Amino acid sequence: MRGFLASAVGVSCAAALALPLTLPTTTAAAAPTTPTQESIPGSTQSLPLAPLTADRSAGGGAARQQGLPQRDVRPFSLVGVVWNDPSVALHGQVQVRTRATGTTTWSAWQDVETHNDDAPDPGTAEAAGRTLRGATAPLWVGDSDGVEVRVQAGGAPHASDRGDTTAEPLPEGLRLELVDPGDEPGAQGAPADAPRTGALSAETAAASAVNAELAPLGATEIPALTKQQTEDALISARGGDTEGAQARPYIGPRPRIVTRKGWGADETLRESQFLYTKSVKAAFVHHSASGNNYRCSQAPSVIRSIYRYHVKSSGWRDIGYNFLVDKCGTIYEGRAGGVTKAVMGAHTLGFNTNTMGIAVLGSFGSSNPPATAVKAISQLTAWKLGLYGANPKGSTYLTSGGGNLYSKGKNVRLKVISGHRDGFATECPGRRLYNQLGTARTTSAQLQGR
């Protein structure tokens, strides 16, 4: 059911958090068909890998080591490796070297995380009409125009514990993906903090219209509210009287959120239909595993790169995460569909239904997450979980869609704020960030007034 929105909508704080009384199961708002001149160029180079040695695995399969020698390429800032079958894991090591744009300086070899577990649930609409691929985590390398990559086959997890030293074959169809995020938002005209409605494409207007109760059409951010304003808005949305003697809801103040328009999403890349689930019962925290070598001012470029990698390289409908947080604590809207709504993401294989995924930009296995990022997780969850009556310090039951920890259909008790590793056998969100989730839960509950 697509509603038509003819113009920008300004709203008062009391109405700024309006929740849909019923959540659609398929799609949401369509946009005005305004002629568009907006464009944030970006591109993906997809290069097939080749054997680096004559040695091949038993049975004539793929070579145990594949890659590309040093070569000149068009400018890019993010790299990853994809393969044909998303159900096949890459057991081994992926490493890249890059050359800074316009120089002769090559980086040291950098490891690319080989996880394949930020993904849509099996059998869901995510895969309908699309070709999904297996993929490593993306790695942010900054402005580069040269690349070298090597992929070495290794053993399956815990194989050495069983005395098995046989290397697993590499997946078929390995390709190197080089992503250019395009220009920064605001670089082509209007100020970045101004609503831009005169040249919105239909796709951009649709992604903005689902947040129309929170900010004007084309706005680059959704402003923060006080706790009082947030509570009043939720009471009003539920049909209550803000002046009455009813109990105040447990909800944290709405934080400032940079919209998809604000980080420069190319809305023509994603699937036009929005997917919703019934509720938001839990939040899964991730790290993007894309490295910590970025400035906060580059975060929109990092997000645009991850978005393009998820859609063009991995074959997903949209960026997988519902929200993203940078090292300075800025919160960004992720998958399109509306920040107050129960949008189905592709972030925790087996548990994308009735949950949301929050990715902190960076890698936190051996590096401590910034306190500002942990605080942002607390603020975001206090608000969004509060919309759906969830206690950040509590637990809930979720039904597994199938994964490597829980079989499909199993009813699983999980913390309302969980790490990715709680739902899937993975290192994500990194040991150091995972260890901070207790603090995030406590702070989130306090912000809700619990």
UniProtKB/TrEMBL annotation:
Residues 37-47 have a biased composition (Polar residues). Residues 1-30 form the signal peptide. Coiled coil: none annotated. Residues 255-403 form the Peptidoglycan recognition protein family domain. InterPro entries: Amidase/PGRP_sf (IPR036505), Amidase_domain (IPR002502), PGRP (IPR015510), PGRP_domain_met/bac (IPR006619). Residues 31-69, 176-201 are annotated as: Disordered. One of its GO terms (molecular function) is zinc ion binding. The keyword Signal applies. Belongs to the N-acetylmuramoyl-L-alanine amidase 2 family. This is N-acetylmuramoyl-L-alanine amidase.
